[in-house]
Amino acid sequence: MTEPLLLLYDEIFLKHETDSLEHGSRLQAIVGELKEYGLWEKVPRRRPRQASRSEVLLAHPHEYLEALQAFCAAGGGVWAEDTVVDRDTYDVALRAVGAVLDGIDAVMKGVYHRALALVRPPGHHAAALRGGGFCVLNNLAIGANYARQEYWLNRIAILDWDAHHGNGLQSFFYSDSEVLYISLHQDGLYPYTGWATETGDERGKGFNINIPLPKDTGDTGYYYAMHKIILPVLEQFQPQLLLVAAGYDAHFADPLSSLALTSEGFGQLAKMIKPWPLVAALEGGYDPATVGHAVAATVAVWGELPVAVTDPAAPPYAPVRPTQRLRIDDAWQIQKKYWRL
Q1: Within-domain flag for 166
Q2: Overall domain count for the chain
Q3: Cα(328)–Cα(323) distance, rounded to whole angstroms?
Q4: DSSP 3-state assignment of 330?
Q5: First-to-last C-alpha distance (Å) of the chain
Q6: In this protein, which residues make up the domain named Histone deacetylase (predicted)?
């Protein structure tokens, strides 16, 4: 019988010291809340393997890996913009990639419907030859290419709900019609990319969807974007595998965004995409008091467990304003050229 959800986690992810908001206490908070809600004991867990060099080469060239390994071995330091590494980072990053690949294997072999890799460092800002935004290796880009190589997939969708645009993910598949990239992100945040007019190039035209959102979008604004654009597109594309860049920094308490999503809202997003075989990897989420609740809401839905998750504090009131609908409708108008919307 196929199980609903597999969690992939290793305490090695608590290493990789950064002196930034992206640190091991994020994962400690997440694991703590999963235990508090009784989810940690109910959902199967696995310690992931370390990805091989040949697997990482599916997205990053040899010279990048050589430079990263040598830099970490020398003690680390500032590797890229907003990205600090230490002596452990190279091995930790390989384990994060391995978690995604193990999740893909588990789902594609029919053992689990879904997998969630609770990893760090995150990956969606990393391009082929550079890191950035706390990211070193692009976990999901490697995962997408691995799924194509190992399982002969030609319809992979990536849904990136991190508050920041996944410029690295976009760069890998911008001219590719086999990988559909969709990003919901706050307009004007780092890395200052992800315009609605960035729709792909050459064979990939129409397979890159950016939905920049204004601040205070809130749950109802996200639901509007999902039903107006994302769910109809996924229904038409019919992905053989859905990869999720699961950032939780769109939460109303997060210090790095102003999107005002609640933990219940994250649970609803998880429910909307539940029908597809999916593998998710942790990206952002930087408020230790709330990130665990948001992840728990996701785990409860994907694990098909009747657990009610609530935020520790009341969210701000965030109605759908005309300006929010207009921004989403702008993206809808652009995507109507490529999809039946």
Answers
A1: yes
A2: 1
A3: 9
A4: helix
A5: 37
A6: 22-300
341 lies in a domain?
Answer: no
* Beta strand pairing call for 156-160 and 208-213: unpaired
Question: What residue has token string 């921004």?
Answer: 327
Structure tokens at 267: 């649970």
Residue 301 located in a structural domain = yes
Whether residue 340 is contained in a domain is answered as no
CA distance 12 to 231: 36
Checking DSSP bridges between strand 3-8 and strand 112-117, what pairing results, if any?
parallel
d(CA 37, CA 223): 25
Q: Which of 276, 291, 194 is nearest to 236 (CA)?
A: 276
Spatial CA neighbour of 180 closest among 198, 158, 153, 212: 158
Predicted TM-score of the model (pTM)? 0.97
Location of structure tokens 């920094």? 249
Q: Using an 8 Å Cβ cutoff, are 170 and 181 in contact? A: yes
Burial of 177 from C-beta contacts in 10 A (0-12 / 13-18 / 19+):
middle
For 22, residues 6+ apart whose C-beta sits below 8 A from its C-beta are 120, 121, 122, 134, 284, 286
Strand pairing class (208-213; 3-8) = unpaired
The H or E element containing residue 268 is helix 263-272
The one-character DSSP state at 143 is H
- Alpha carbon distance 326, 337 (integer Å): 18
Chain center to CA of 4: 19
**pLDDT, tens digit (0-9, with 9 covering 90-100), for 210-250:** 999 999 999 999 999 999 999 999 999 999 999 999 999 99
Give the separation between CA 182 and CA 170, rounded to whole angstroms.
9
How does pLDDT run across 328-337, given as a tens digit for each residue? 999 999 999 9
Domain hosting 46: range is: 3-335
Element (H, E) at 77: strand 77-80
Q: Give the CATH number, domain containing residue 266.
A: 3.40.800.20
Vertex 182 angle, CA 337 and 7, to 5°: 155
* DSSP per position, 195-251: -TT----GGGTTSEEEEEE-TT-HHHHHHHHIIIIIHHHHHHH--SEEEEEE--TTB
